[in-house]
Design goal:
10 strands; two-stranded antiparallel sheet; 2 domains; 47% helix; alpha+beta; 11 helices; Phosphorylase Kinase, domain 1; Aminoglycoside 3'-phosphotransferase, Chain: A, domain 2; 14% strand; 6-stranded antiparallel β-sheet
């Protein structure tokens, strides 16, 4: 029987629902391996929400089996991968959304964390137009998710551990962004670790959330990840803006719109940390406080980008 990796097992503390899913994961994996005629060929990998196993099929093909707990924010993953057809993204071979299972082409283990950060931003900027195809009707709307996130952020009131003016900026800008129609398929979490080196293409995106939304919403994860690189410059704010402008200049995306989205996503992220601590009846831990510092610093850096007419 498959044994859940300890790092993924730690997610049990998140909720009763997570604990139940983890309890059923060994049987789920065993059933998928049998049904899809797969054999595990290497050590499991995992993030906070999914398990990934290197496998081989009886026909000899080498693939990756991904199993994730279905959640609202990853409901569009299969549809996005189908729409991309392996162009700029990992190729989807088979899917069972009911069981949260995907069979994917096997890429290398090398990701964009192995490349200079600004060069990596250029790589992602070149992927954006390939991924930002016209939206399909089966994708969830990013605006619907954003509305929920903003309502949750507003409900926290003064319990949000961030400067109130940044929170108000995010709420005002977010409410305006919700009103605009979607223009593209968006990945939703396109950071350095979610772009892997491939064999048929140099770099391919993986793990999309998958939304019908606004391409300007994509920049945030490339700003607040690889934080140590930013700190090493001695000017975190300036280095954040340098990444921001590399992405904006390379893509032609609207500067102010991208700035608004960065602030919105940063403050929503702060709200998530506060909400999780509140739900568990505990104070913020050291890792949460460090993550919140990243997000608040990113929002602060955006104050020098353009003029904020909507704020």
């Amino acid at each position: 029987m498959f044994v859940v990796p300890s790092g993924l097992e730690a997610q049990r503390e998140r909720s009763v629902e997570w604990a139940a899913w983890l309890d059923g994961l060994p049987r789920l994996v065993s059933g998928l391996l049998e049904d899809w005629e797969l054999a595990v060929t290497g050590a499991p990998r995992h993030g906070k929400t999914a398990l990934v196993l290197p496998v081989s099929h009886t026909d000899g093909s080498r693939l990756m089996l991904k199993v994730a707990r279905p959640e609202p924010d990853n409901a569009g993953e299969v549809e996005a991968l189908k729409a991309w057809r392996g162009l700029g993204a990992v190729r989807l071979e088979r899917a069972d959304p009911h069981r949260g299972a995907l069979l994917l082409e096997r890429l290398t283990a090398r990701d964009l964390n192995s490349v200079d950060a600004l060069e990596a931003c250029q790589v992602v900027a070149r992927l954006y137009p390939r991924l930002h195809l016209p939206p399909t009707p089966r994708l969830p709307l990013l605006a619907d998710q954003l509305s929920t996130w903003l309502d949750d952020l507003a409900a926290l009131g003064r319990d949000v551990p961030a400067p109130p003016r940044f929170v108000q900026q995010a709420l005002a800008a977010g409410r305006a962004l919700v009103e605009d129609p979607p223009t593209a398929i968006v990945h939703g979490d396109l950071h350095y670790g979610n772009v892997l080196a491939g064999r048929r293409e140099p770099w391919l995106a993986i793990d999309p959330k998958g939304f019908s939304g606004d391409p300007a919403s994509e920049l945030g994860p490339l700003l607040w990840n690889r934080w140590e690189d930013l700190v090493a410059t001695g000017d975190v704010g300036g280095a954040l803006r340098e990444r921001f402008y590399v992405l904006v200049d390379a893509t032609g995306l609207d500067e102010r719109r991208c700035r608004d989205w960065v602030v919105v996503r940063a403050m929503v992220g702060v709200g998530w940390e506060a909400s999780e601590a509140r739900a568990c009846g505990r104070s913020l831990g050291p890792e949460q406080r460090a993550w919140i510092t990243r997000l608040v610093t990113t929002a602060k850096a955006m104050q020098e980008v353009g003029a904020p007419p909507s704020w």
